[in-house]
Design brief:
- By secondary structure, the protein is mostly helical.
- The protein has two domains: 68 residues, Arc Repressor Mutant, subunit A (Orthogonal Bundle); 156 residues, Tetracycline Repressor, domain 2 (Orthogonal Bundle).
- The strands form two sheets. It has a two-stranded antiparallel ribbon. A two-stranded antiparallel ribbon has the order 3-4.
- The longest helix is centred in the middle third of the chain and has 26 residues.
- It is elongated.
- The termini are far apart.
Length: 239
């Protein structure tokens, strides 16, 4: 048993799952943990405890720690995967849509529909400073259903800075670069407001992906909110 999982200590990040084959049950547990982590962090933010991840994955918390020796390692894994997924979505929109506005709106719709905004690493929002305010300081608090009540309560975001700031700089730079291309194309075509930045576009993704208890309600709310936000981004002809 120990021999199949001890490889997790094979690198400094405890993430040997990418290089060492796992036994079938160990691989299954890893997939359950990663799926649960995406769900829990998506609902509660990166401040959610490891116990919540283990409970959602239906494994013991020790199983989670055998694969990810610290919460920082798990957070970094999820954040890096999300950054890579967003980058792929942006590249697909850039390569498959000839019209600049269609490419930008396709990227936003695909990203929001996938729930990407709930896992967007705060690092990629730290694009610049305007009027002395760091752009990623104002985050929309995540929502959670209070068990047994059906009521939503706000969950304050615990600082994930230490782990999320460790997200691969090259991965974050790649995302910012390709989103920047989408923004520049739409702006050059006169279809995007001239004051809209890359950080604004990423904030739209983060804002338009609320976590609601009902999947259909969540999808409808996201689509409606994104329609409104897209209208706010679009350039209007001068009267």
């Amino acid at each position: 048993m120990g021999g199949t999982i001890s490889a997790a200590a094979g690198n400094g990040r405890g993430d040997a799952s990418r290089t060492t084959p796992l036994r079938v049950d160990a691989q299954r547990n890893l997939e359950h943990v990663l799926r649960a982590a995406r769900e829990v962090f998506g609902e509660l933010g990166y401040g959610a405890p490891m116990e919540d991840v283990a409970r959602r994955a239906r494994v013991g918390v020790g199983t989670v720690y055998r694969r990810f020796p610290s919460k920082d390692v798990l957070v970094r894994r999820i954040a890096e995967e999300e950054t890579s997924r967003l980058t792929d979505q942006a590249r697909a929109a850039l390569g498959q849509e000839d019209e600049p506005w269609s490419a930008l709106s396709r990227f936003l719709r695909t990203s929001v529909a996938s729930g990407a905004g709930r896992l967007l690493p705060p690092q990629v929002l730290r694009v610049g400073v305007e009027d002395g305010v760091v752009l990623d300081e104002a985050r929309v608090p995540q929502q959670r259903v209070q068990p047994g009540t059906g009521e939503l309560r706000l969950v304050p975001e615990q600082s994930p800075a230490r782990a999320v700031d460790a997200v691969d700089d090259a991965g974050a730079a790649a995302l910012l670069d390709v989103v920047g291309q989408l923004v520049e194309r739409a702006r050059a075509a006169g279809e995007l407001r001239t004051d809209v930045s890359v950080s604004d576009v990423l904030l739209v993704i983060a804002t338009a992906a609320p976590s609601l208890p009902d999947a259909a309600q969540q999808a409808a709310a996201s689509a409606r909110l994104l329609d409104i936000l897209l209208e706010g981004l679009r350039s209007r002809p001068q009267a």
